Amino acid sequence: MVDLSVEICGIRFKNPIMTAAGPTVRDADSMLKAAEGGAGGLVAKTISVTPAQVPRPCIVKIKDSILNAELWSDLPTEQWLKVEYKKAKQAGVPLIASIGYKADEIRELAPKVAAAGVDALEVSTHYLGNDPTPVVEATKAAKETAAIPVFVKLSPNVPDISQFAKAAEKAGADGIVAINTLGPCLAIEIENAMPMLGSPHGYGWLSGQAIKPLAVRCVAEIARAVKIPVIGVGGITTGRDVIEFIMAGASAVQLCTAAIIRGHKIYGIIADEMVKFMKAKGYNTIDEMKGLALRHLPEQPLRVTPKPVEVIASKCTACGLCERHCPYNAIRVIGRVAKVDATRCYECGLCVSVCPTRAIRY
Ligand SMILES: Cc1cc2nc3c(=O)[nH]c(=O)nc-3n(C[C@H](O)[C@H](O)[C@H](O)COP(=O)(O)O)c2cc1C
Question: CA dist 228 to 79, 105, 209, 231, Å?
Answer without folding.
Answer: 32, 25, 26, 10
